[in-house]
Amino acid sequence: MEKTSSKIGVAIITYNRPDYFKQVVDSIPKEKIDVLIAVNDGDNHYTRGVSNKIDFHILHKEQLGVAKTKNHALECLIEKYNCEHLFLIEDDIIIKDHNVFDEYIKAANSTGIHHLCYEKVANNEKTIKAKYEQPDGVKIGFYHNPQGAFMYINAQVVKKLGFFDESYLNAFEHVDFAYNLAKNRLMPPFWYFPDLLESEKYLTDIKGSSENSTITNKNKYKENWQKSAHSFVQKWGIFTNQIPDLGIESLEEQLVFLQSTYSRKTLVNSNQMLSIIIPYRDREFALKQIVPFLQGYIKRQILNFEIIIVEQDNNKPFNKGFLNNIGYSLKNTNSTYVCFHDVDLIPEFSDYSFPEMPSHISSHCSQFKYANIADKIMGGVILFQNSHFEKVNGFSNEYWGWGKEDDDLYTRCVKEDLEPYKHPLGRFYSIPHKHRLIGENSEKEYHEKNGQRYNDYLNGKLDNLYHKKDGLNSLPYYEIVEKKDISTNVTHYKVKI
Q1: Taking all residues of the chain, what is their mean pLDDT, rounded to a whole number?
Q2: To the nearest whole percent, how much of the chain has pLDDT over 90?
Q3: What percentage of the chain carries pLDDT values higher than 70?
Q4: How much is the average pLDDT of 303-327?
Q5: DSSP assignment letter at 45
Q6: Which of 95, 164, 314, 326 is most buried (CB neighbours < 10 A)?
Q7: How many CB atoms lie within 10 A of CB 369?
Q8: Distance linking the first and last C-alpha atoms of the chain
């Protein structure tokens, strides 16, 4: 989604509830936004004298309804103030945490879902249908009912599909808007309405406000609702109860599409530098494929990154953990996080953002027919904040040959209270290669030794804090045999260990 500006605009929509309105205004952190306007659709024009926080007032001479009122707000924020991030707040929603606007914008930029609504109004959390978590800590819940009391919309969504349909009067305008977005693949499928999973930390509705609504309690509300429902059927050919629930699989497909098409990962990761470390030996075909592919794929998510290839240059059994530790010691000092990346895994869909916790992002690989890999795995492609990787003391240096260094790493994370996160949608193509436990020069004997070593660690037969002694802080001697700068951000080291 093209970026026009970074200005945050907030509009409060109000109708004959001056006491509620004042509470909403008082709760808004003006220092966190660029513009605050009020749109009054009632006959009691109280908004002007309430607060000096408000930059602009729109006063209707007569009631025009929710759709027109919200459109006037959006038009003002977009055309008068050139805001990109638009928030509409009805006059019964209170801001609890001043970071609310930043959190909704981060969620939109991370997921590519550029229309989110507060769904916890009147206990609507009971209708939750699915949850989705990103490596960067963004958590989205999907709910059965579309709410509109607090909503985030990116200006580009409005410019692409238009404003609320003004033929609806105080009912169905947001259902119509959401259905239009869903049909145009600008949000998740209908019946999966997104909100921050923990939005109750940031927002709440004024106690009793739903029961005291000045719209739903009016005599004509039922008549308006019926007319609006009829308008919806006339426009779309079906009523809402005929819109099919396409299921979780369809939701996941759409989440991949939205993030791949509309996310702004470079903004989410703007203050970060990523070091990608590839341990390597004797897989030149794979290396020639993955390096250029990663350069193209990663730059759509992180502008500042480097790729470090660490090649084991001797005939000893391959030691991936040792090589990864070496790569970590050789990374750019400005790097803020690392990705340990198998040479044979090409991302089809993945998220390389700065991780809140150690993250396993290669959860679905073609070599396993894209089946969901078991939870307690830290192999393939993984992400670490520097501080977290140093806290677990990196990989063990003692696993020679194939296997178990990743299980050891997972256990280190658990022991240090860093429970790893597994990406639910990560998909990778596995470049075919000969398995190291099969055929001549099999590493089966080393694999069995590694299994015994790991079981000893897991069962307490080793020092319970042995990982504090074996890892980054005990890196055995190694020699850099050759260093090649492949490009400005790709370095290939050959090392003897």
Answers
A1: 91
A2: 75
A3: 94
A4: 95
A5: -
A6: 326
A7: 7
A8: 47
- Taking each helix axis as running N to C, give the angle between helix 320-330 and helix 405-415, from 0 to 180 degrees, rounded to the nearest 10: 60
Q: Is the pLDDT of residue 274 over 80?
A: yes
The greatest distance separating any two alpha carbons of the chain, rounded to the nearest whole angstrom, comes to 87
Determine the Cα angle at 346 with ends 450 and 108, to 5°. 110
Q: What is the pLDDT of residue 215?
A: 57
H helices within 184-283, ranges in order?
A: 221-236, 247-262, 265-268
Confidence (pLDDT) at 216: 54
- In the chain, domain spans: 8-261, 269-496
- Whether the pLDDT of residue 36 is over 90: the answer is yes
Question: Is the CATH number of domain 8-261 3.90.550?
Answer: yes
Distances (CA, A) of 131 to 109, 121, 183: 18, 18, 21
In the chain, the amino acid numbered 198 is: E
Per-residue pLDDT tens over the stretch 75-92: 999 999 999 999 999 999
Average pLDDT (44-59) is 88
- Residue 112's closest CA among 200, 194, 14? 194
Indicate if the pLDDT at residue 432 is higher than 80: yes
- Rounded to whole angstroms, how far apart are CA atoms 370 and 362? 10
H or E stretch at 23:
helix 18-27
What does the buried/exposed string (b/e) look like for 452-487 if buried means 16 or more CB atoms within 10 Å of the residue's CB?
Answer: ebbeebeeeebeeebbeebbbeebeebeeeeeeeee
Angle among Cα 290, 295, 299 to the nearest 5 degrees reads 140
- Answer yes or no: same fold for 8-261 and 269-496: yes
Domain spanning 269-496: which superfamily?
Spore Coat Polysaccharide Biosynthesis Protein SpsA; Chain A (3.90.550.10)
Structure tokens at 39: 């749109």
- Res 439: pLDDT: 55
Per the structure block, which two tokens stand in for 70? 């919200």
Cβ 494 vs Cβ 481: under 8 Å: yes
Q: CB–CB of 240/181 below 8 Å?
A: no
Report which residue type is found at 262: Y
Distance CA 280, CA 313 (A): 9
Residue 3 has pLDDT above 50, yes or no: no
Residue type, 216: T
Instruction: List, in order, residues 6 or more apart from 4 with CB less than 8 Å away.
Output: 82, 84, 155, 156
Q: Residue 251: CB partners within 8 Å, gap ≥ 6?
A: 130, 142, 188, 189, 192
